[in-house]
Specification:
The structure holds two protein chains of two kinds.
Chain A (H helix, E strand, L loop, with lengths): L1 H14 L10 H21 L9 H10 L4 H28 L8 H21 L6 H15 L2 H11 L6 H29 L9 H22 L24 H9 L2 H16 L1 H4 L11 H24 L1
Helix pairs in contact in A: 2-4, 2-9, 3-4, 4-5, 4-9, 5-8, 10-13
Chain B lengths: L1 H8 L9 H9 L1 H5 L3 H5 L8 H4 L13 H9 L2 H4 L8 H7 L1 H7 L8 H5 L19 H9 L2 H7 L5 H7 L1 H7 L8 H5 L12 H6 L3 H9 L1 H9 L4 H5 L11 H4 L10 H32 L5 H20 L5 H30 L4 H21 L1
Helix pairs in contact in B: 8-9, 11-13, 21-22, 21-23, 22-23
Classes of the chains: A mainly alpha, B mainly alpha.
Chain lengths: ~325, ~375
């Protein structure tokens, strides 16, 4: 009796907990769910992965081919990575659109941007780990872009030595991808969510979250079955594939890198980034959503179209 | 000038004047082992004026007929040669060879020691720069044996080296396999004689043991021997030994057997046996490679394909006996393995593709759980 009562009390307390509104923070909650999936699949793949240049490929193939459910873990992890980047970019656009960076929330804006940096860095370090030829060359190409950005390149070479891939860089990538950055991400998430305003809502809140989780997992599973990632041969520094792909969020940057002179590109990139970071201090107008003001709405949509077009041109220039 | 050479370069004796020989000679094994000019040419190496140096037992440039005697002074003496581990029967062997016999008859044109080993730059045959090293031997023999005008006198073909260079043996040699046969492995070195009729299968059989064993069982062996034909070289050529393929059954048999004859049909049957088994193996390999790209586990398939391939390889020497039953024994094993692998690989691929069938169930399950959750929460 007492046990049953205790359980009821526990369930009640869970459902009555102060939580974030699902409608208001839909993207944030999706990111959290996605991160949970990423943490789980990544953690399970850690058991099989061997962090070495020579045996990394072998162990990745082992994960996909022989490990129980390894196929699903691998492909869900990769698809989830792409989804999480899409979601965080949408979150950034959302906070520009609704001007969520206004006065008391400047720090949130900066945390979101840092989170985006972490996620893209996770992508960059993660795709080297399978030591597969196409991914390997993708990393090389991202390094080419990194090389030309003034301050970032010195930070990079301070952490990783230089712009070549060798066994030391590989092991550092591995440590960053699977230990350091996940811990940083957790810390930043805690900082972000402790700043959110909590609201009292439906007592069946957790059930809805669970439904969202199920649907999201279903989408990832479907994608991993219908369009799995192609794993070609082991990396070969002397064998460049005919086409080297880049992640979608780097395509506009790649376009700029091709058409602008080297030094201008680097400075422009830095200045743009800096401007985005200090946006809350530049824009001190009233926090009214953009669609209510004609000029800023048209500028915003033009900006979006420009990014989209440069991305498409960048893709065809690959 | 002479004193300068002696003091600075430590050049002594004959080398002081005969500087044109110095460079060649210092490379040679004789120089390394301390054999000096006077051991072959006579004279006194310790004197620096021309008269004194060219005095005691001085030979100068030896005549061609004397060269064998000069070399054999050391090279036929067991007391000198034993410490080096070099055989000392070269002179005797040389006189049994075609070259030696002709030389005995007074023909000074034939090859003697210096023609193959060089004059002053004689090196150890293990040295890859040596004229007698396996890698350079075809070139060395070819100096005379691809000379058309010289060979015409003796009624010998001058194409042998050209043919050898196109052969599979030469291909292996160029790849760096020093075990690949060169001229010396079939013809011998000092006792160089061409293997006659009835001898060639022993020469080839030295390396191709299984092929020879099976050839001795065949009908060809006795028939060809009675007719005075050759053996291996009838189908495989003597110098121009090509890499064998199954097409040989169609190309070569037709020279002797007419198309309607019973014997030609045996050849055709053997040909189809080999070709069909190879095709089966290739097909199964293709499917396994597809699986490998997905990637799916294919270790056991790869092992079994290798096993089937060895069965086909084993059947090839046995085909020299021309008995279809013996060949079939191996080919059937290879074929059944290839068929099994093909069937299982296709089944595995279908099983992999059936993953898509799992999707509707997944979504049904998700919808079901969602509806249950909603039902519970609304109650």
């Amino acid at each position: 009796m007492r046990l049953k009562k205790g359980a009821e009390k526990f369930m009640f307390s869970l459902n009555k907990i102060n939580v974030f509104s699902l409608k208001k923070y839909f993207l944030e909650i999706l990111i959290l769910i996605n991160l949970l999936i990423q943490f789980l699949t990544g953690f399970l793949m850690l058991f099989y992965y061997i962090p070495s240049m020579e045996r990394g490929y072998e162990s990745t193939i082992f994960i996909i081919r022989d490990a129980p459910l390894g196929y699903y873990f691998f492909h869900i992890h990769l698809w989830g990575a792409i989804f999480i980047l899409i979601l965080i970019i949408l979150l950034i656009f959302k906070s520009i659109f609704y001007k969520l960076y206004h006065k008391p929330k400047e720090i949130l804006w900066i945390f979101t941007l840092i989170l985006f940096l972490f996620f893209s860095f996770q992508y960059f370090t993660g795709i080297l780990l399978p030591m597969e030829n196409n991914f390997y060359w993708q990393v090389e190409r991202i390094m080419e872009i990194l090389k030309e950005i003034p301050i970032l390149n010195s930070i990079y070479s301070f952490i990783f030595g230089n712009f070549t891939i060798n066994k030391f860089v590989h092991i550092r990538f591995y440590i960053f991808h699977s230990f350091l950055i996940p811990i940083f991400i957790l810390i930043f998430l805690f900082l972000i969510f402790s700043n959110f305003e909590k609201e009292k809502i439906s007592p069946f809140y957790l059930n809805r979250i669970f439904i969202l989780f199920l649907v999201f997992l279903g989408i990832l599973l479907t994608l991993s079955i219908l369009s799995p990632f192609k794993i070609s041969e082991i990396y070969d520094p002397f064998k460049t594939p005919t086409k080297i792909y880049l992640p979608f969020f780097l395509l506009p940057i790649y376009f700029l890198k091709i058409y602008l002179p080297k030094k201008i590109f680097g400075f422009l990139f830095l200045i743009l980034n800096f401007l985005i970071f200090i946006l809350p201090w530049i824009d001190k107008r009233e926090p009214v959503p953009i669609y209510k003001k004609k000029i800023s709405f048209s500028v915003f949509s033009l900006f979006l179209i420009l990014i989209f077009l440069t991305g498409i041109f960048g893709f065809f220039k690959l | 000038m002479k004193i300068l050479l002696i003091l600075i370069f430590e050049i002594k004796g004959c080398m002081v004047c005969h500087s044109e020989v110095r460079e060649e000679y210092t490379k040679s094994i004789h120089y390394i082992e301390g054999i000096y000019c006077d051991d072959c040419h006579g004279g006194n190496k310790n004197v620096l004026d021309i008269k004194g140096a060219h005095s005691i037992n001085f030979i100068g440039k030896p005549k061609r007929k004397d060269i064998i005697k000069i070399c054999s002074k050391c090279h036929s003496s067991p007391y000198v040669m034993k410490p080096y581990g070099i055989p000392f029967d070269q002179e005797i062997l040389y006189y049994t060879s075609e070259h030696g016999e002709s030389f005995k008859r007074g023909n000074e044109e034939v090859a003697i020691c210096i023609d193959c080993h060089g004059i002053h730059d004689i090196m150890d045959s293990k040295n890859t720069n040596s004229k007698t090293n396996s890698l350079n031997l075809p070139k060395t023999c070819g100096r005379c044996h691809s000379n058309f005008n010289l060979m015409k006198k003796y009624k010998i073909s001058s194409d042998v080296i050209l043919e050898y260079n196109l052969s599979v043996h030469s291909e292996r040699l160029k790849e760096g396999n020093l075990n690949a046969p060169t001229c010396k492995d079939c013809h011998g070195t000092h006792g160089a004689t061409p293997p006659g009729v009835g001898g060639i299968e022993k020469v080839c059989g030295g390396c191709h043991i299984k092929q020879r064993e099976n050839f001795l069982k065949s009908k060809h062996y006795e028939v060809w021997r009675n007719l005075g034909y050759g053996e291996c070289e009838i189908c495989h050529e003597n110098h121009f030994v090509k890499k064998t393929s199954h097409n040989l059954w169609k190309e070569k048999c037709i020279f002797c057997h007419s198309k309607d004859s019973k014997n030609y049909k045996i050849a055709e049957e053997i040909y189809t046996l080999f070709i069909t088994s190879e095709m089966d193996l290739l097909k199964s390999e293709e499917i396994v490679n597809e699986l490998k790209k997905i990637p799916l586990p294919v270790y056991d398939f790869l092992g079994r394909i290798e096993e089937a391939r060895t069965y086909i390889l084993e059947a090839q020497p046995i085909s020299h006996s021309l008995s279809i039953d013996d060949i079939k024994n191996f080919i059937i094993k290879a074929k059944s393995i290839a068929d099994d692998v093909q069937r299982e690989a296709i089944r595995k691929k279908k099983l992999y593709e059936s993953k898509k069938l799992f999707l509707p169930f997944l979504w049904l399950f998700i919808l079901f759980t969602i509806s249950i959750i909603i039902y519970i929460s609304k109650r």
